[in-house]
Amino acid sequence: MNNLRAVFSRSIGRMIFAGLLLLLCTAGASAQQAQQPIKINVADLPNLPQPQLLAQAAIPGLPALPAPGGPSGLTWEQVKTKFEAANPVMKSDQSNVDEMKAEEITAYLRPNPDFTLSADGTQIMPHEGYWRPTSGTQVQPNFSYLHERDHKRELRLQSAKEGTQIATSQHEDLDRNMIFVLRSAFVQTLQAKAVLELAKADMEYYDKIIAISQDRFKAGDLAQIDLDRIELLRVQYESEIQTAIVNLRTAKIALLQLLDDRTPVDQFDVNGPFDFSSEMKPLNDFEQAALDARPDLRAAVQAIEQSKTNHKLAISNGSTDPTFGVWYTYNPSFSNPYAQQTLGLSVNIPLRIFDRNQGEKQRTLIDIDRNQQLTDAARAQVFSDVDSAYEQVRSNIALLVPYRDKYKDQATRVRDTVTFSYQHGGASLMDFLNAQSDYRVVQLAYLQLVGAYLTAAGQVNLAVGREVIP
Questions:
Q1: Cα gap 455→259, rounded to integer Å
Q2: CA angle centred on 92, ends 89 and 96, rounded to 5°
Q3: Domain coordinates of the chain in residue numbers?
Q4: Overall pTM > 0.70
Q5: Fold of 77-122+138-464
Q6: Could you report the average pLDDT of every consecutive run of 10 residues in the chain (470 residues)?
């Protein structure tokens, strides 16, 4: 028995030793394998997300990134095309033009002929012992037609066509105003994007300053209070970034509303030049282009032509229109005993002694003069709009040129110089903070001026009636 126990104990010990040895070998192989780089063929993994998208999914506070290979944003022409095709206000107003076009059909319709069927001469009671109720019944179908004289139909059609032309011009004028609203929203979105990029760049620059200041503090070259003041100022940059994000989303929402688009805000973006041009054509060129292109002025001129046509129609409506009638009579009881079937004709001519449409003639004559005065007022408004918008653009250019050519570079140079001097002990903390503030004010003012210029350029396009400044 003792021998069996000894043999069993030795067997158990060998098994434990073998297991430990196997475990050590496996661990060594794993460590050696871990030291070798793992090679992965990217072509075998086509669906791996990019690191930027992984970071985006891990940080929900960041704005959404565009899909790989997707468009960077809609251009102005794409936005305008989409707006004209999808905006419900423009669609509704186009229905008004279509209604006016349909009224042309009504205006040119001929009067409908009249049909009358009469029966007379039926005996309803016996007389002297005779009662033949239907022997003397006369059946008479009657056709009549009103003949319109003096080109009434043609004048009504002409007036309706001119009304359609006015509605079309008014629709183009609505499009002109809506395009200005759309362009303003587009410019605000571009400006919000530029401000957000500036805020992020300022934050990145200031984070480098903080890192350098922390190194100086660790080296004993900077006081704790100065480091705290520098780090506390970072909250202003954070606030500016959040405000810029809110402004950008708000501008995109307004733009999406105009486009009647349900695309999520994070997936919608626009792209375009956010800059200005210092070249301007002479004012007379814009004024002449406005006289040729403004749809509201064209509608006013067309209203004069329509009022003249309506006056001609009022004169025509004062003329007499005869009504011709023809009828057939069966079984008449005339003096001619053989007139079993007869034919009758009539002409009805109204005697226009009192009503000759005098009031409508006078009203349309007054309407001609009123529309001429409204056209003069519209023409004066065109000149006023062009002059005001042109002056606004010229003023913005006068402010932007020195910013572009001088002030922006000066602000950057002052900031960098004072920052370098402060890091080497040559400037105070207050000078450093003031230089940072001045740089931000100048850069932000420049972006705001560019946005004001682009809005004023849209105002010029609105005043002219077509795009003269891209």
A1: 19
A2: 135
A3: 77-122+138-464
A4: yes
A5: Outer membrane efflux proteins (OEP) (1.20.1600)
A6: 40 42 39 35 34 33 37 84 88 90 92 91 78 79 92 93 94 92 93 93 89 85 85 89 94 92 90 88 91 93 95 92 90 73 90 90 94 94 94 93 91 89 80 87 92 93 89
